[in-house]
Design goal:
Elements: H1 2-10, E1 16-20, H2 26-41, E2 47-50, E3 67-69, H3 75-78, E4 83-87, H4 99-102, E5 108-113, E6 124-127, H5 134-146, H6 151-164, H7 175-186, H8 191-199, H9 204-215, E7 218-220, E8 225-230, H10 232-237, H11 250-253, E9 260-268, E10 271-278, H12 284-289, E11 294-295, E12 299-304, H13 308-324
Parallel strand pairs: 1-2, 1-4, 2-3, 4-5, 5-6, 8-9
Antiparallel strand pairs: 7-8, 9-10, 10-12, 11-12
The protein binds manganese (II) ion (MN).
Manganese (II) ion (MN) binds next to loops.
Length: 330
């Protein structure tokens, strides 16, 4: 953490850009906005971008800082010689576009992340796998440097931490995480808005999608593996985005016997994204690794380019085989 602080203190005032992974979740958005406030506090004027526009439920975090979608950038904004901060992304391709294509003159990449699977793609790498969220890294450095965190920054950082830790209940949560959350409370983080916008804000389409995944739910190995799927047709007819359904994988996980919960989702025809959640005995990151994916011990993902039925058959067969051979035990 000291290295990151030292680095931030010595960077000169080049234009700064902040980007995070595509299909941004609470931590990607929270850490990006938190980092933008930190850099503003230091006298920079960062721009924050993402491949797509962020899910509506997170817009309450955009106050003085807006996250721009890459295709709404002005030509001049694309041509600056940026120092690029990449947040919460284990690999550079997680941002979902080519940096060189969109920002041809960028000069440097700063990689700030907490995924164990991070491959150190940056010119400067600040990877802390013992941190529960990238937002925790940002909050720790921010408070360490200034002795305070502004209210809006605290709300963004708080949201990132809460969404990445299942409200401080996932194993990655540490005493350090909880101590920072206590500080964020003192800094007046607006947890009331977070609850209202994130947990009590579902659309009718999202509820219809939920009905579908509950209908589609099935088990293997007496429920040790519980899985469900969301087809392209369901996505389309309910106007669902990946941000809309990020908590759907919590439902298969609710089954008592379940150790491995899987959600197969098809946002692009015949390109299946699979979310994995595990409860305790299986390492989700290792499991995802055999399909070329990655993530964390309890939450990971991978992709398969096949039609849904084939993708499910292929993945589930391989997963059952691996579980029987104890391939991915903690
Ligand atoms: Mn994260």
């Amino acid at each position: 953490m000291n290295e990151l602080k030292k680095y931030l203190k010595k960077i000169v005032k080049t234009p700064v850009m902040i980007v995070s992974h595509e299909s941004p979740d609470g931590d990607a958005i929270g850490s990006s906005i938190g980092m933008a406030y930190l850099l503003k506090e230091m006298g920079f004027n960062p721009i924050v971008v993402n491949k797509e526009s962020i899910p509506a439920k997170y817009r309450f975090l955009e106050n003085d800082i807006k996250i721009k979608c890459i295709d709404e950038l002005e030509e001049t904004e694309r041509l600056d010689r940026y120092n690029v901060f990449v947040m919460d992304s284990a690999k550079i391709d997680r941002i979902g576009f080519s940096l060189k294509e969109i920002f041809p003159n960028y000069e440097n990449i700063v990689n700030i992340d907490h995924h164990v699977s991070n491959d150190y793609f940056g010119d400067n790498n600040f990877v802390f796998p013992n941190m529960a969220a990238t937002s925790e890294i940002v909050g720790s450095v921010y408070f360490d440097m200034f002795g305070y965190i502004t209210k809006n920054a605290a709300t963004a950082i708080y949201t990132g931490i809460m969404t990445d830790t299942g409200n401080l209940t996932y194993e990655a949560t540490t005493g350090v995480t909880v101590a920072l959350v206590s500080i964020l409370h003192e800094m007046k983080a607006d947890f009331n808005s977070m609850r209202k916008y994130l947990y009590e804000n579902e659309s009718v389409g999202q509820m219809n999608g939920l009905k579908t995944i509950l209908n589609n739910m099935d088990i293997l190995m007496d429920g040790f593996v519980t899985y469900t799927y969301l087809s392209y047709d369901t996505v389309l007819s309910n106007g669902l985005t990946s941000g809309d359904i990020e908590n759907y994988v919590d439902y298969p996980r609710k089954v008592a016997a379940c150790e491995v919960a899987l959600l197969f989702k098809e946002f692009i025809k015949d390109e299946i994204k699979v979310s994995i959640r595990t409860k305790g005995s299986i390492d989700a990151n290792k499991l995802a690794g055999i399909f070329g994916g990655g993530g964390h011990k309890r939450a990971a993902g991978f992709r398969i380019k096949k039609p849904m039925d084939q993708a499910m058959k292929f993945a589930l067969n391989r997963i059952v085989e691996g579980l029987k051979n104890n391939e991915w035990n903690n």
